[in-house]
Amino acid sequence: MQDEAQFPPQDPWRSGLAGLCPRCGNGKLFEGFLKVKSECSSCGLDLQFADAGDGPAVFVMLILGFLVVGFALWLEFTFRPVFWVHFIVTAPVAVIVCLAGLRLLKGLLISLQYRHSAHEGQLDRD
What we know:
transmembrane; mainly alpha; membrane; transmembrane helix; single chain; DUF983 domain-containing protein; 126 residues
């Protein structure tokens, strides 16, 4: 493992949204679509700490869900299509927007977790 001082601080927004290593900004963060690699292939950072939990899904439901519902309402009030047109148009938009947003937000939350040294909360039992 290399020394932390060797790596200049990375912008968590840039590295997270691009799916890059939060320490070096070069290696890939994901193995597949949403699975986080065990370590960075470029700098060797152990990515076992990376646990975004339900955060990305919550943000996708709250933020992007709002946009998809807004799109469906716009479609309804602008064109007044029959029900099956809503299903054919709105369902794929919802799936594509939510899946893309899930990956982006997971990368961002993991980068922010690394940047701020966030760890699981523990009770102080002194």
